[in-house]
Amino acid sequence: MNNWYGIDLGWAYAELFASIRHKTHCVHRSYDVLHDSLIRFAAINQSRNVEQPHAYLRRIVGNILVDQYREARHWVSMDDADNHNSSENPEWEEYLVPSAEHLAELNRRLTSLQRVLDCLPPRCREVFWFFRVEGYSQPETARRLGVSLKAIEYQVARALVDMQAASELLM
Amino acid sequence: MRTLKEEAARWFAEMQHAGADDPVRSRFEAWLAQSPAHARAYAAFDELWSRFDSGAGLEALAAVLEQKRKTAASRKNTHRYLRRRKSKCAPD
């Protein structure tokens, strides 16, 4: 119950959460970042053995925060984002320990993420893995795979077009 | 020649890492403002992206992708079957 694929959840929801909150200034966004990171971590952990799980989870959180900051800076002013700030909200402390429902929801997301990845063509899956699961930016993914940034953008776009085509097929 | 969807997806991918003052942003914004169809196509990818943030959204996405793969596989099998029949029945 207090362990999520090698991560001490007590630590994640107390210490790590506090450091995320310190950066986002928003409790809800902090939970989103933490949950997203836990999912990504579990997906990575299932494909290979992660030696220092806590350090790894921290790195994923860092990657996600950088991405979000970049987006937020352009699309909404940081002041706007702070208006959703619920730091005075007394309820947030209740969430410090993840509930069984929370963990079930995380597991559901993890299973679905793996099913989605399985449906992508191999090259696309590899790129998507680095970008959407490991949390590397596309330029970093390009460096890691030794291909051009344009090639990475092409694979990401291709995955998006594929997924959308599948969604429309059943509508 | 790219379709509008492909073009919108390429912009979407590019915008994930373009910095706030990257000159590519103004080209993107010009493209976005060019036609409501552009804006709609882009927004659809934005929506698709956000499905990764919820269990229900990801689950639905996984289901449609698996369905599509199954349909594609059975279509392929039908083709193969017909081709085989055709070659068997073809008069010499």
Describe this structure in words.
- The complex is a heterodimer of chains A (171) and B (92).
- Chain A is mainly α.
- Chain A folds into two domains: 77 residues; 71 residues, Winged helix-like DNA-binding domain superfamily/Winged helix DNA-binding domain (Arc Repressor Mutant, subunit A), CATH 1.10.10.
- Helices cover 74% and strands 2% of the residues of chain A.
- Chain A has a two-stranded antiparallel ribbon with strand order 1-2.
- In chain A, helix 2 packs across helix 5.
- Chain A is globular, with a radius of gyration of 17 Å.
- Chain B is mostly helical and 92 residues long.
- Chain B is elongated.
- Chain B is 79% helix and 0% strand.
- Chains A and B meet through helix 3, helix 5 and helix 8 of A and helix 1, helix 3 and helix 4 of B.
Could you provide a short overview of the structure?
The complex is a heterodimer of chains A (171) and B (92). Chain A is an all-alpha fold and 171 residues long.
Largest sheet of chain B: none
- Continuous helix count of chain A: 8
| Largest interchain contact | A-B, 36 and 31 residues
Order of helices and strands of chain B: HHHH
Question: How many distinct beta strands of chain A?
Answer: 2
Query: Order of strands in the sheet with the most strands of chain A?
Result: 1-2
Low-confidence stretches of chain A: 74-92
